[in-house]
Amino acid sequence: MTVSLAGRGITPQQPVRGRPRSEAVERAIIEGTMKLLEDGVPLAEISVERIARTAGVGKATIYRRWSGKEELFVDVLRSAEPDDVELPGTSMRDDLIALLESLRRRGLANRSSAILHNVHAQMKSSPKIWAAYHNSVIAPRRSLGLEVLRRGQENGELRADLDLELVNDIVVGPMLVRAVLRPGGELGEGLAERIVDTLLAGLRPVN
Amino acid sequence: MTVSLAGRGITPQQPVRGRPRSEAVERAIIEGTMKLLEDGVPLAEISVERIARTAGVGKATIYRRWSGKEELFVDVLRSAEPDDVELPGTSMRDDLIALLESLRRRGLANRSSAILHNVHAQMKSSPKIWAAYHNSVIAPRRSLGLEVLRRGQENGELRADLDLELVNDIVVGPMLVRAVLRPGGELGEGLAERIVDTLLAGLRPVN
Amino acid sequence: MTVSLAGRGITPQQPVRGRPRSEAVERAIIEGTMKLLEDGVPLAEISVERIARTAGVGKATIYRRWSGKEELFVDVLRSAEPDDVELPGTSMRDDLIALLESLRRRGLANRSSAILHNVHAQMKSSPKIWAAYHNSVIAPRRSLGLEVLRRGQENGELRADLDLELVNDIVVGPMLVRAVLRPGGELGEGLAERIVDTLLAGLRPVN
Amino acid sequence: MTVSLAGRGITPQQPVRGRPRSEAVERAIIEGTMKLLEDGVPLAEISVERIARTAGVGKATIYRRWSGKEELFVDVLRSAEPDDVELPGTSMRDDLIALLESLRRRGLANRSSAILHNVHAQMKSSPKIWAAYHNSVIAPRRSLGLEVLRRGQENGELRADLDLELVNDIVVGPMLVRAVLRPGGELGEGLAERIVDTLLAGLRPVN
DNA sequence: GTATAAACGAGACGGTACGTCCAGTCTTGAT
DNA sequence: ATCAAGACTGGACGTACCGTCTCGTTTATAC
Question: Region Disordered: what ranges (chains A, B, C, D) (predicted)?
Answer without folding.
Answer: 1-23
